[in-house]
Amino acid sequence: MYVELKNVVKTYDSYRAADNIDLSIEEGRLVALLGPSGSGKTTILRMIAGLERQNSGDIIIGGRVVNDVPGSERGIGFVFQNYALFRYMTVFDNIAFGLEIQKQDKQVIRRRVEELLALTDLTGLEKRYPNQLSGGQRQRVAFARAIAPNPRLLLLDEPFAAIDAKVRKDLRAWLRSTISSLGVTSIFVTHDQEEAIEVADEIVVTNHGRIEQVGTPMEICIEPKTPFVAEFIGRGKRVSNIGAFRGFARWGHMAAIIQPEFVHVYLPGEDAGASGDALQPAIVQDVAFRGANWALRLACCGEELSAFRSLEAPPVHPGDPVRLSVSRAQGIAGEQTEPLYPEGT
Amino acid sequence: MQQHSSPWVRRLLIGLTAVFLILFLAVPLIFVLVQSFSRGLGVYLSAITDTFALQALALTLVTVLIAVAVNTIFGLFAAWNLTRYRYFGYKIVNTFIDLPLSVSPVIAGLIFLLTFGRASPIYPLLTAAGVRVVYAIPGIVLATIFVTFPYVSRELIPVLDARGTDEEEAAALMGASGPVIFRRITFPHIKWALLYGVVLCSARALGEFGAVAVLSGRLRGRTLTLPLYIESLYQEYSYAPAFAVSSILVVLAIVILVARAAVEHKGDKRGEL
């Protein structure tokens, strides 16, 4: 384990921003701290960086307890949410700053900065000031500056928040491949599930200062362990009575979350294949075009469901009677969830 | 928003402003210069090269220098402290800094008279140590420092507030020490505001009369600053010399005004004031 948090507590007045956090991160992993705002994810990151001091508990980096070690001696690079580039320094001086502080040789610094400019595709912009750069370029400068002194741990606070949607997609892919080629252990904070799923090897879902679940993106998506994760990760709807859906009768009045991916919708007469017997009637409430597909809101058995429909399939309209089947649900039992599959009819 | 006032309203308003400025600012200034030469160039030159006048000028400049230096350092500390730390009572400190702006300078002078004068419990200690504050140069400097206290910090606080602490945190995480962070990150950002504060502080210190009048003791050639010296000449009915010496202050004021405009222009261009 490269980074470990043990029983870490951080309170602001009466508010518990981190409530007994236990977390282990393996060397070389790219980890996302994912949660809604106020869930404690940024607090965890800032405590690892030494920008905040926990009230109790231990933080261990590389086998060393760093509770009393200042951030500058923890071997970390930090990318701030708004990049915090030094606005009175050129791109070159920004990237060189950490190396200059370490009193490295001028030639060594120059070579390292040039190497990083090439890596971040900023060659030719070294004489510019931060306010002469685009959002994506600034983010790459912040990244280059953070990794210049070869940190063993890279921390990124909402690295894509200040960038427009189109550039964000490209940067995500770039950041993922760059970090994996460098092999540096990295932790980034985000409130965007899609971003966490696309970029991270491992996701830590936080809520109310606690960790809800740790797992690969696949595990988090397919087997959310708590009701919170199930609702936060997908676009699923919570139903109060899963027993009303065909095939789920044996779970009676259990509450459950049904993700749109697992709701299959057919117009009357449309071929439903093998699931033909499991269909039950529903009414389309609302249809929204989402670019790649249609998002449907449906009323079925007194509950509301959401579903996707392919652009290739015949269109449906609000008020249309349809038939649907549910191929999987996430049953809620107290603080835990369990996957439910319909029984053969 | 486009204003659709008639051209006559516009001309009237501009005209009134111009008349007001001429009547209350330009004419008196011209009058000072005219009066100072009213008894001829000889009287003017002898008035401004008078030993007492030169001593008053020297004392004024020394006082301004010390007061501005002290308040620049204090202003930097105060502004840093009030924008970077949140502690119990910081709002009280923040309000307290403005005290010299709301207290009449004469009262400021009296406060120091009571603190360091014969009536004060620490007066015997000061006398034993051979330190004279009241009716001596230290008193004049103290009074000037008090009166010009808030000018630098008031310019810096909004700039530091607007800027946030991100860049400083970033530099600290890379291992930069406090002085390096100040020199390379903070100072470039506040330098125009700082310079502007220094200019305002100098202008205010140069003309201070009330507080200094109480503490000076008015020993000609020893504890008279330029404004006090001018007043004493005037009281002796030496009008032409009084105005002649005034013209020195006018010239210094114009120098500061030009410096201020230059700083404003430069800072404005970079959007930092």
Task: Put the structure in a nutshell.
The complex is a heterodimer of chains A (345) and B (273). Chain A is an alpha+beta fold and 345 residues long. Helix content of chain A is 25%, strand content 33%.
Element layout with pairings:
The complex is a heterodimer of chains A (345) and B (273).
Chain A: E1 3-12, E2 15-25, E3 30-34, H1 41-49, E4 56-61, E5 64-65, E6 76-79, H2 91-101, H3 106-119, H4 135-147, E7 153-157, H5 165-182, E8 185-190, H6 193-199, E9 202-207, E10 210-215, H7 217-222, H8 227-233, E11 237-239, E12 256-258, E13 263-266, E14 280-289, E15 293-300, E16 303-310, E17 321-326, E18 329-333, E19 336-340
Parallel strand pairs in A: 3-8, 3-9, 6-7, 7-8
Antiparallel strand pairs in A: 1-2, 1-4, 4-5, 9-10, 11-12, 12-18, 13-17, 14-15, 14-17, 15-16, 18-19
Helix pairs in contact in A: 2-3, 2-4
Chain B: H1 7-36, H2 40-48, H3 51-84, H4 90-97, H5 99-102, H6 105-116, H7 123-128, H8 137-148, H9 151-163, H10 166-173, H11 178-207, H12 210-216, H13 226-235, H14 239-269
Helix pairs in contact in B: 1-14, 2-14, 3-8, 3-9, 3-11, 6-8, 6-12, 8-11, 8-12, 9-11, 10-11, 11-14, 13-14
